[in-house]
Amino acid sequence: MRKYLAISVIFFLCFFNSFGKEEMNPQSLFSKANGLYREKNYKEAILTYEKIIAEGNTAAEVYFNLGNSYFKENDLSKAILNYERARTINPGDEDVIFNLRMAYNSTVDKIEPVPILFYQRWWQSLIHTFSPGTWSIIAISLIWITLFAGIGYLFASTANGKRNAFLCTLTLLFTSMAIFYLSYSSHRAIYGKNEAIIMASTSYIRSSPDDKSTKLFMLHEGTKVIIIDDQKDWKQIKIANGNVGWIEKDAIEKI
Description:
Layout: H1 2-24, H2 26-38, H3 42-54, H4 60-72, H5 76-89, H6 94-105, H7 118-127, H8 132-155, H9 159-191, E1 195-198, E2 202-206, E3 215-220, E4 224-231, E5 234-238, E6 244-248, E7 252-254
Antiparallel strand pairs: 1-4, 1-7, 2-3, 4-5, 5-6
Helix pairs in contact: 2-3, 3-4, 4-5, 5-6, 8-9
């Protein structure tokens, strides 16, 4: 009898232990959060998505769905913050871009960006076609193809074959170098801007890092800024139209 009792205890301990591990599985948590979202239980969905992120399991889909949950809760600044984080991981995702545009349309501040030349717009569009990682994979693949083309040159038996193999190798080499540069530019454009979102409902932008300094203008939640300097409890920021000022660091959160 004691033997059977011990076996039963071990069985139930293993069952509950495996159940607990399943609950901690990121995919299970993601499915649970999605279910809560479909049930319109947005507050619990937010907590579950945030738990996934806190455990280091970040992905564009998690940030995107978290942004959707915050948007449903009318928390515009956190919705935009998470949409921007999703776009950082997957810059070409049309759903992310569409929802982010909708969220920005709901913000108070309508800031006209500094006009850029047509070739700058073309370049930005090009580098954001793929993520930096995807550009790198393309470049590395081309390097391997270049290597095989070089081997083909060495083993070509005719002068015409050698010339074609040489031209092919040279073209592939320059193309792979160009793709590596695109990868670098894409990475710098996404991760090198030091961007942040205004989280406070309203914030005065001041002329210096001092709450008694001159108020230059006001920004509202959801506005994107670029951090260009910091000093103790203050950040110097620049907005899309080029205006610069200081804001308290607790009023913003980095993307």
